Amino acid sequence: MNKITAIFFFGMLYPALVLGQGETRNWYFGSGAGIQFNVDGSVTPLDGGRLNTVEGCTTISDAHGNLLFYTNGINVYRADHGVMQNGTGLYGDTSSSQSAIIVPDPGNNLGYYIFTVDTNVQRDDPDNGFNYSYVDMALDNGLGAVTLKNQNLLERCSEKISAVVKDCDENSFWVITLAPSSSYSDTYNTFYSYEVGLDGVGPPVRSSMGLNITDKRGYLKLSPNGEKLACANGESGMFLFDFDSDTGRVSNPLSLQLDATNFAPYGVEFSSNNRFLYVHSSNDNFEGPHSSSLLQYDLENPNPNSSRRVLDERAIFRGALQLGPNGKIYRALSQSYQSGTNYLGVIDNPDDQNTTYTHDAIDLGTGNYATQGLPPFVQSFFDKIDIISGNGTNSGFLPLCVGDSYSLEAPVFLDGTYSWYKDDIQLSESGHLLEIDNADVEASGMYRVEIDRAGFGGCAIQGKGEVLVEAIPDPTDGVLIQCDSDADPNDGIAIFNLYQALDVLTGPETDFSLLFYENQQDFDNERPIANPEHYQSSGNGQQLWVRAINNAGCFGTALLALQTTPVTVVPSEIGSFYGCDEDAEDNRLAGFLDLDFLALNYTGFTVSFYTDLNDLTFEVNALTGSELLDDGTTIYVRLENDGQCADIELITLRIDPKPVVNIPSEIPTLCINNSSVVLEAEEGFQGYEWIRINDNGTHEVVADSRIANLTQGGEYLLQVTRSYTDTNGLHSCSNTASFTIPESNIAIFSQEPEVLDISANNVVTVFVEGEGDYEYALHDQNGPYQDTNVFQNVPAGFIEVFVRDKNGCGITNTTVSVVGHDKFFTPNNDGVNDFWQIKGIDSMVQADSFITIYDRYGTLLGHVSPTTKGWDGKQNGRLLPASDYWFRVQLQDGREFKGHFTLKR
Predict the structure, then answer these.
(1) SS3 state of residue 671
(2) DSSP per-residue codes, 533-581
(3) Predicted model pTM
């Protein structure tokens, strides 16, 4: 049995103007990043966030955890992630550390103030100082609208802001920032506390410090109980102050010592119990290499600096710290000023002096990046009170056993009024104690106490804790049987994994832990067996005492007898199991074991397979079929009846070689204008399959013999099979290799060749299409050929153009007309160059073209028709002398050109 008499409660401020921690349930930050806190304290990443900020951001939800809006201090986004009406142009800054914070309007439960801080980072960047805007959630069908914008409070301020409840009776908050004492100063030495109440934003309470703070960067945080103020100031250091929530004044500065390397504080946060302060500091090197530290300070220590503890050091950039509604503190993780990460770090139990830190704890999802900032909130949302001491834990969870008695106890407040609830149903108790005797399972539930006028600022406090009552386990006596396969299988001594007795003692559906004892005395003195996974029995029938324990720590007892079954490990009737080599090229004869197929040989047993007899004994490292095993491996088979070892057999794994597939070294091209390609595989195999991989990825067997007549090009597989005869009959191993049959075709002229003629450089461009690889030639189909389809310096006349497929699929040709003329002619009746004529003119198409001849003085000498041989060098039958002559051509198609040529004799 397990009896516990008290529980810690988690407490929260519950003033009229602050309904609970639902306001902090949803966070949006960084670049598209967001998280949601679930009721059980777990965290779920959120998508859809519209923020893109390197630093400042803030978010607010309603008391039930429904998102209302969020902002980077410039643009305000609604719950549906659209921009809020009039929600642009606020005077925050995405490069301000905190940029903005949202504070509920005490006089309007649908109204919210957005306070913003802005500083300049370069000469042309305006400094808009400290301002506030107002959001009315009653507008735009409940999506809200900004009704008041950029009301200035200070001309200049730092990049930091914080808020806390002032007074629940007066319904007011304090909103605080650090700024210079005047707008002309560059020293940030004055805190300005603004009361936000029923009448709006009041005048500031000024608290001037004798400090020389010149670095405006870093976070400002009030403790949840409003008594302390932590201020990080980059290269100007880290300070802790007292805060008076009645007056709004800041006092008693204490400089906190930081790591010598990571000297610049940025993110700060208090634990929810107000005892511990956490600081994220860096080396402030923007160019890299980057370095940062995560530090803890105990504020109950008279000298907090002496309590400094380093939780983490690593090469990352600076980042914010923010307390969550589950009591954990989250750390923004950034690689550099502009480069974020997909993760948040977590301080797991910040209320504990020995807390631990988990890096990369929260995965934000693909495309969502944390940068340097996290959303700040009114710190009073996180105020928590540990309610009494008792079982030494403040987890808020109390496990009990049926029949236990327990008490829930809240602190004593003389002016407090107590109301107790179970699962939100009010109970009759009205004092600081709730006592229940002889608990049953129905006593399980969520318990809550509300204490009126007990908290900070006169606010109510709520404590909450979960009680789980479980039945006491009732294990039955049982027997655990192990196979004894050692040198003397009849001695009753064997190695047992005692945890295998769980099903025997409590049944397969239970979730109990077990403790084992060798005798009654060890049981009574709580001396359990130290190594129950490898326990050697002392003889057949040995009896152990067992304690079965459930999650609540409740336990029952039973006796466990250890028995052995003598086993001589012999080869199975299967003998050997045959498989195929996995890789024919790796000089290793090894393959994968088909366990499902192998298990079919053992009907009536639960079967498991091992390569080591010790692993079989302790039922660890069982084969799963995914392990590559060498030829000759011994496989041990464990046979069980009702979870108890019945026999052991062994099988030898035999691996047959996988055939090597050799593709023909030269794969001919398949001409589409032809029929097929014939390929031959190597001889000596018992099976052949030629497989075409279709365009949609499906496989099609197109031939099943050694010689294949393939009629399509593309991607193929050749599979060959070799058969073996073993003790179990015929066995075969196959292997495949891939190859490609290239396709080609004779060229087709896609358009008429393009001719640029009647010039010093006649150019012909040929246009073809087809699946082939083509080359080009003029005049002669035997070449010479060129790769380019453009011919330069083409002579005038009718030119034959040839296009040849390089893969041998054929030649196609056409004729082009290149218009031009001879540069000279020799009319001496020798049959060579006796006439001058324009070349490349189709006498049928251009028959009406007009050609005239002139001498050097412009005298008309005659006319030439393209249908004749040409001009013979005569005028009216008289031979003209050797000289240069001129011509003019007017083609029938409208073109006209002039030139000259030489008559030689």
Answers:
(1) strand
(2) GGEEPSSTTEEEEEEEE-TTS-EEEEEEEEEEEE---EEEEEEEEEEE-
(3) 0.55
Residue-wise pLDDT for 324-342, tens only, equals: 988 899 999 999 999 999 9
Q: Please tell me the distance from the alpha carbon of residue 664 to that of residue 692, in angstroms, as a whole number.
A: 16
Location of structure tokens 């299409």: 769
By CB atoms closer than 10 A (0-12, 13-18, 19+), residue 611 is: middle
Q: Tell me the helices (H) and strands (E) count for the chain, helix number first.
A: 4, 71
Closest CA to 378 of 266, 319, 459: 459
Question: How many whole angstroms from its chain centre is CA 743?
Answer: 43
Contacting residues for 445 by C-beta, under 8 A, at least 6 apart: 422, 423, 466, 467
**Tens of pLDDT, residues 723-780:** 988 766 677 899 999 999 888 889 999 988 888 877 778 899 999 998 889 999 999 9
Instruction: State the pairing for strand pair 754-756/790-791.
Output: unpaired
- Would you call 354 exposed, middle or buried from its count of C-beta atoms within 10 A (0-12, 13-18, 19+)? exposed
**Single-letter amino acid code for the residue at 593:** L
User: d(Cα 100, Cα 90) in Å, to the nearest integer?
Assistant: 10
State the DSSP code for 760.
S
How many residues make up the chain in this entry? 905
Q: Give the contacts of 206 (CB within 8 A, at least 6 positions apart).
A: 181, 190, 191, 192
CA 606 – CA 599 distance, rounded (Å)? 9
* Distance, CA of 152 to CA of 238 (rounded, Å): 28
User: Quick one: which H or E segment has residue 102?
Assistant: strand 100-104
